[in-house]
Design goal:
This protein has a single domain (30-102), classed as Histidine-containing Protein, Chain: A. Helix content is 53%, strand content 20%. The chain has helices spanning 2-23, 30-50, 77-88; strands at 60-64, 67-74, 95-102.
Length: 103
């Protein structure tokens, strides 16, 4: 009989865990968002460095809630457009705010 009570209690806890999981909202916490933003920033920086058309250094990259902001100075209008285009290809980027300026 005691064993039956433990089994019932265990099943009840598992069921409550499932219900509680269903009740959670789809929003992510600030720590998870910060990690995601840092991952996106690193991905954009790496993509810019790897792109052969972008022979520039000093492009600043910041990300907040998936929105990437590019800043700094580049030598051509083509570089401005190319940097934004490269940033858009990175997984997780929702939009790009291109604040790059010509030297």
């Amino acid at each position: 009989m005691k064993r039956f009570g433990c089994t019932t209690a265990l099943l009840a806890m598992l069921a409550l865990g499932q219900v509680a999981g269903c009740a959670m909202s789809g929003s992510v916490g600030p720590v998870v968002q910060a990690i995601d933003d840092a991952t996106i920033t690193a991905g954009v920086q790496a993509a810019i460095v790897r792109d052969p058309a972008l022979k520039v250094t000093g492009i600043g990259v910041e990300t907040e809630q998936g929105v990437v902001q590019l800043s700094g100075f580049v030598s051509s209008a083509d570089s401005v457009a190319a940097a934004a285009s490269v940033a858009r290809t990175v997984k997780g980027v929702k939009s790009v705010r291109n604040d790059l300026r010509l030297k």
